[in-house]
Design goal:
single chain; 604 residues; mainly alpha; 3-stranded mixed sheet; 24 helices
Length: 604
């Protein structure tokens, strides 16, 4: 799973003066009619990117723009409405550009920009900004990690970091305001997904600010900072933690306990929200980028589960196991030989897989990213409630690598036979290779370089798991069963997500369905089901994206025959960055035609 800097739920916000806001809104006025459409589009893209950076200072920092390094985003109901108004104006300006007069690459930018704006406006209309957190993400979970995401090399860097610690108090109050408005509007999380939230608050309620995670960067200051500044910076950080961070977490914890949880809903499906069924149909279109109905997705999921189960049954016969599917998966869940005894042992197994794949990449790709990646354990304060692994992209200025986070909590729920597939998904040739390459595409506009479509990003990562078969992985039948467990898990999502949010499934039914059709541990299954409950539609993107990529590859292989070059195909798929699946299909069609024409020309 890819966890972007906004990953999933971060709001894109702005701290502006009245004059600054006035200037931004003036920028939304239609471009002069004498300008060429391509110029109009380029200017609009620049205006919107500038708006995004000011809206989201942490985004600006992550892409190497240091102008707002002392700020956090401004959060309130009014801010959300103001941003929505700006998006309406941006869309109006975009629709004033004659698309037919744009070049092919400009039309792609136009279409992607229009889709993003339309999706944002729909999300606001459905009130999703009133639910700014869930059980695995949110400002209170994300902010502790800024110590690993911001520059901390100079005195000014540390002063900016401390300024952000002080700003956390107002930032927290803004989120409380949004969630109070959500209570009033009936836009609240299900109670079940809030169970176990306490560590995300209590971790930060320290008596000694020097024991806070936020203080960690002050333990060892860089050599570039004069020793005469050390005490001042440390005292300032400790004061900010004691007077802003700790009280803010305490207020937020009291709000959750006394106000939010008593109003959290007993229902789990999105259909229980205001306009819930239409909201879920929108979510299906948004996350899959396909015109599919929830019923079509559900039926496709059932068919995929049946197909994959057939392949899993073949492996059970291959290893000559004496028992049925349920007995085999239970043996996988309970046999100690399939589990690491220590966190270090698990991380070493992951590292071995990654280094093996690093050596295979040139056989699959003509172009590889310059940026490297690292491996880290998931932070303790979120590990019990989050997924088995996730990826954090590199910074846009090349100063921070990408990172694959592996969950080392509850080792008996982290089977070694799934490590190959999981690692190929999260690092290479999955998320890291795709996202790092995207950030290195020179002529890609920034709004595309640092964003993405879940169906493409997660579809590519799931496709990458299967690429391991072609690179010599999954030689052990249990590891191949682990790969199929990962694949059927994504197919089950098509059934479970639509079941929960559209067809009235209970949490228990969803858990039972995943338990009956995979070798995942019950701990992982419960965490995953709670994720689907709190994030309607997102989980559909993986399997549908992978199926589309596989379908397009098969199309290219059939039409090009012996002329098909796998490395060239992969390079082409990734060369345009993350795109909606309909645009990917267009790109593949054009590539096939180009390859055919080149072959014909060479034969003359």
């Amino acid at each position: 799973m890819y966890c972007s800097d906004s990953h999933a739920k971060r709001l894109r916000l702005l701290t502006t003066t009245a004059a600054g806001l006035f200037g931004l809104l003036l920028a939304c006025e239609p471009a002069h009619s004498a300008e060429l459409p391509g110029q109009q589009l380029a200017e609009l893209i620049d205006q919107m990117w500038e708006f995004s950076l000011q809206e989201d200072p942490l985004l600006a920092t992550s892409v190497g723009d240091l102008r707002f390094n002392d700020r956090l985003s401004s959060v309130s109901v009014a801010d959300s409405k103001r941003r929505n108004t700006a998006n309406e104006q941006f869309l109006e300006q975009l629709d004033g550009i004659d698309r037919q007069l744009l070049s092919r690459s400009e039309r792609t930018n136009f279409d992607i920009l229009r889709r993003q704006l339309s999706d944002s406006l729909a999300e606001h209309e459905f009130g999703t900004y009133l639910i700014p957190i869930n059980q695995r993400s949110g400002f209170h979970i994300d902010l502790p990690e800024i110590r690993r995401k911001v520059p901390l090399n100079t005195t000014t860097d540390y002063e900016n970091y401390i300024a952000r610690l002080r700003a956390f108090s107002e930032h927290t109050d803004g989120h409380i305001e949004l969630m109070r408005a959500g209570i009033a509007a009936g836009q609240v999380l299900p109670a079940i997904v809030m169970e176990g939230y306490e560590p995300t608050i209590e971790t930060h309620l320290v008596d000694d600010p020097r024991r806070s995670l936020y203080y960690e960067p002050l333990d060892e200051l860089p050599a570039a900072i004069p020793e005469s500044e050390h005490d001042r910076l440390r005292d300032a950080a400790a004061e900010a933690i004691a007077t802003a961070i700790v009280p803010a977490y305490r207020r937020f914890g009291e709000f959750l306990k006394n106000e939010y949880l008593p109003q959290a809903r007993g229902s789990i499906g999105a259909s229980a929200l205001p306009e819930g069924r239409e909201f879920y149909r929108h979510r299906v279109r948004r996350f899959t980028t396909l015109e599919m109905t929830p019923d079509e997705v559900h039926q496709l999921g059932l068919a995929e589960v049946k197909r994959i189960r057939g392949e899993m049954d073949q492996i059970i016969r291959q290893v000559e196991f004496d028992g049925d599917f349920a007995a085999f998966t239970e043996s996988l869940r309970t046999d100690p030989k399939f589990y690491a005894e220590t966190a270090d042992e698990l991380l070493k197994e992951v590292s071995l897989v990654l280094k093996k794949m690093d050596g295979k990449l040139p056989t699959l790709f003509g172009r590889l990213p310059r940026m490297s990646y690292g491996l880290r354990p998931v932070p303790d304060y979120i590990a019990p409630r989050t997924t088995a692994a996730y990826y954090m992209r590199p910074s846009g200025d090349g100063t921070r690598a990408g990172f694959y986070y592996m969950n080392t909590y509850n080792l008996k729920s982290r089977p070694l036979y799934m490590i190959e597939a999981l690692s190929l998904h999260e690092a290479v040739p999955g998320h890291h290779l795709q996202i790092a390459l995207q950030q290195e595409i020179e002529d890609l506009p920034n709004f595309r370089k640092y964003s993405g479509f879940t169906a493409f990003v997660e579809g590519w990562a799931l496709y990458s798991e299967r690429l391991g078969l072609e690179a010599g992985f999954y030689e052990d039948p249990y590891s191949d069963f682990g790969r199929l467990t990962m694949e059927i898990w994504r197919a089950c999502r098509l059934v479970v997500d639509t079941g929960i949010h559209y067809f009235g499934w209970t949490r228990e039914r969803a858990i039972d369905y995943l338990h009956a059709n995979s070798a995942m541990s019950l701990h992982n299954i419960r965490s995953e089901v709670d994720r689907y409950i709190s994030w309607p539609g997102q989980a559909l993107a993986y399997k549908l994206g992978e199926l589309k990529i596989r379908q397009l590859r098969q199309l290219a292989e059939e039409r090009l025959g012996s002329r098909f070059d796998l490395r060239a195909f992969h390079d082409m798929v990734l060369a345009g960055g993350s795109v909606p699946l309909n645009i990917l299909e267009q790109n593949v069609e054009i590539w096939i035609e180009t390859q055919t024409e080149r072959t014909a020309s060479a034969a003359l």
